[in-house]
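Box 3.1 — From sequence to structure: ABC transporter permease
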Amino acid sequence: MSFDVVSSWLSLNGDLLLTATWETVYMVAVAGIVGFVFGIPLGVILHTSKKGGLLENPRLNKVLGAIVNIGRSVPFLVLMVAIIPVTKIIVGTFIGTTAAIVPLTIGAIPFVARLIEGALLEVPSGLVEAAQSMGATPMQIISKVLLPEAMPTIINSITITLVTLVSYSAMAGTVGGGGLGDVAIRYGFHRYDISVMTVTVVMLIVLVQIIQSVGDNLVRRVDHR
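Predicted structure (token representation):
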């Protein structure tokens, strides 16, 4: 492909792809932030309410665990369709970029919760016992021992979640959710435009690589082990 051809192609499709990229970043960022706000505390509760935990409550742990497992077991495309009434109540429509954030967030919360629970399990029990022996309260142990010690794994979990949300956002595009997935389907697949399809895939790969690189750098900075 000559320079003139590439320049012409970019002039025709550049704005479309930039807008779609922004929509994807917007969906992933908002869904990720809301998912972390709810998912991280949920993961902490799952860890601390288990048998032998700081705030042992087996009944609560069992109920929350069942809810999280149900949320994780529903395929994302099925989830988007199943919660259309909820999406319409929250944003007034079930089509568009903002509407796609609702299922993305609901899908992210149980995913984050299990990752955070797993991250906290990696904290040596001896550290918790030492804090208890010094009279630390459960909340102090959570905020000053569990979360700080698990921070590298937590950041890695956040990175995994954001990468997963990128792929989910592409799926959302298949049902009018906007973003790069929407462009790939409408212009790449339906119009048989291989160039658009290829560029959207490349942009998704670049986006994932950026997220992964930033996450890896943050993990190295906070990991003092």
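Summary of the box: Residues 80 and 148 are 35 Å apart (CA to CA).
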